[in-house]
Amino acid sequence: GKSILEKGKATLFGKGDNPCNFVAGDDVANFAVLALTDPQAVGQIIAIGGPENWTKNQVAALYAKLAGRPVRITHVPLTVLRVMSPLLKPFHQGLSQLMVFSILMDTGDMTFDSSTTLRQYPVPLTRLEDWVRQRVANATPAASDVPV
Fold first, then answer.
1. How would DSSP label each residue in 79-96?
2. In this predicted model, what pLDDT tens digit does every residue of 59-91 receive, in sequence order?
3. DSSP codes joined into one string, 8-60
4. Buried b (16+ CB within 10 A) or exposed e, 33-66
């Protein structure tokens, strides 16, 4: 979202139409605390994820909507990612791995249904819209912060 907030632009690897589950870092931390402190969690595997599944295009549109500005989205085709990832690996392993992960996110089942986990562990989860709204608010200077 940073490039949308700063420049009104986003580059998405792939088509961006595959639903993915997004989970807030604070929610992951809450589950970690629960796993360490709740006797019911001892020896259990707790499947965690966010409360909703969104496409990357939907996330970009959400940022644009909440920031009140249009966004120009550029898509890097999967074919380019498949060709460039192995070519870049010797020179920039991190970017190569990001491309491989992006192919998976754009083609695999990245959805999650948190209802089973929440029945056993009723932990409040952060909605993506609320998380983005906070990021937008933090990126937008308050009227009192703007020099006169």
1. HHHHHHHHHHTTT-HHHH
2. 999 999 999 999 999 999 999 999 999 999 999
3. SEEEEES-S-S-EE---HHHHHHHHHHHHH-GGGTT-------S-EE-HHHHH
4. eebeeeeeeeeeeeebbbbbbbbbbbbbbbbbeb
Give the residue carrying structure tokens 């997004």. Answer: 22
How far apart are alpha carbons 5 and 59 in whole angstroms? 13
Contacts of 98 (CB under 8 A, 6+ apart): 13
pTM flag (> 0.70): yes
Query: How far is the C-alpha of 72 from the C-alpha of 39, rounded, in Å?
Result: 49
How far is the CA of 64 from the CAs of 36, 37, 117, 128, 134, in angstroms?
Answer: 38, 40, 32, 14, 14
Place of tokens 């909605």: 127
Contacts of 84 (CB under 8 A, 6+ apart): 96, 99
DSSP state of 142: P
In the chain, what are the helix, strand and coil shares in percent, each to the nearest 5? 55, 10, 35
- Residue 70 corresponds to which amino acid? P
The label of the residue with tokens 């644009």 reads: 64
Instruction: Specify the 3-state DSSP secondary structure of 147.
Output: coil
